[in-house]
Amino acid sequence: MTFEEIHQRLAAKFGDRVGPLAPANKDPWAPVQPAAILEVCRFLQEDPDLAFDCLMNLSSVDWPKKNQIEVVYHFWSYSKQHSFIAKCLLDRGRPEIASIESVWKSADWLEREQFDLMGVVFTGHPDLRRIMLPDDWVGNPLRKDYKEQAEWHNITTTRESPLDGFVRLDELVKKKASEKKEVLQ
Amino acid sequence: MSKPLEIPTMDMTSKEVMRRIEYTGDMLLNMGPQHPSTHGVINFLVQTDGEVMKRAIPEVGYLHRSLEKIGERCTYNGYMPYTDRVDYIAAMFANQGWAMAVEKIAGIQVPKYAEYCRVIACELNRISSHLISVGTMAMDVGAVTPFPYALREREFINDLLEELCGARLTYNYLRIGGVAFDLPSGYQEKVTTFLDHFEKILDEFNRLITYNEIFIRRLAHLAPIPQQMAIDYCLVGPNLRASGVNFDVRKQLPYSVYPGLQFDIPLGKGEQGTQGDAWDRFWCRVEEMRQSCRILRQCLAQIPKEHDIMGKVPRKIKVPEGTEGYSRIESARGDMQYYVVAGAGENAHRVKIRTGSFTAMGIIDALSRGLMIADLVALIASLDVVAPEIDR
Fold first, then answer.
1. In Å, how far is A169's CA from the nearest CA of chain B?
2. Is 0.90 exceeded by the ipTM?
3. Which end of chain A has less neighbouring CB within 10 Å, N or C?
4. How many domains does chain B divide into?
5. What is the pLDDT of residue B271?
């Protein structure tokens, strides 16, 4: 089935909880209301014509200007050989969405990764903890406004170079920027 | 619970010592991160009752280098050398995935000749990656001899790739819109000579290890993955095909010049044991090397005459903000996917790399229940996980 057919199928079943198909720039996608994601996923998996048996990717995109975090789901069906992309738009301040680990097992690690790096909370996930970073790490690195902590258990995360007079790297960037400003003035 | 343990002293008899260290509870062991057979730095928390595991929980992240964050700060071209580090055993595929994703969002056409160069480089890389995989797998279960056999052949491929792009491990050969260098003169003959030699070696390798009685007994029926489970956990590549799922991105969603090439997809049939067991995964890789040889021979015969290695690429690649692209390629470790969202300037707003090893690690917890500790090593090796590809 094509993207449009799958989307029509979903729209007929869920009404306005599945938004219109986004303009086909490269890969079209459909917005889904965050509250309905679990139901939509179940339907995608169980409907015999759709038969999406695999969640192949789950990622999230941070948009500070729009104050949104998008969670992007890429579905794939091995039996029907078709794919579909759904997006959930979450509030950046409190990104929370239902876990779909009960539908596809591959969501387990993929959701943990987004929880760790982007800070999206997947409610109902059986084992939601950091996967890449240490458990006591502060912040979510893939957020656009992320500031790395200066040290972790007395291990510095910045590099001081003897060539720059042992100034910390983040301070050096600031120093160079202000110097550039002075030159311009 | 059992009573607290006494520390055995030197004057005890061995029987007394044995009685004192008798302990009936489960043990929690750390396997890794510096364990030689975990293929990089991965830690397993193993809960065991004697030799039998109740659970093995993978702890990853030791090789996390924030490649996705770096992708947001580099220009599209500038990110290419970093993609080599996604999977250093098969760096060419990570290059190609990135190039294809950016070409998709920027609408760049790649000349036919460059596509052939890409496929030749990738298939050579696939053979060298599978050689590492099957060699180390044999070594992990105790057969050391096949490993130097595999590495000797891999050296020839490294030489060939070095001649092509100057590097032996992190190639940085592909560019957005084409490839960096033309094939050197006489390259076709060299590759053909190597293939003639290598196909004979593959038969020898089969005689040495694949159909070795001891090896089959060690791996047959070991940790079989049923089809449905493999799909549910999103296994990809040879791991998926060993379970009998007929899916190869090169065949089902053909890209580059693969539509014009003839090759078969080896599927696990449970020839020596259960379908989808560790031996099937090993066998799939060996057979894929043979298919790669076939692909290489066809590429060398079909490659166009005009040496056009770069398409028309603007000096600064700029894509409207928010444009999204998704590319899927068949890497040595299976379906590798890049998800790119374009940013306002010359760089991406978000890069997400979905790799085969990451999802393969997710299944180990479920498969390890009831296995022996020694079999965990064989299981990890048979899934062919590479640590940098898990953590990125």
1. 16
2. no
3. C
4. 1
5. 80
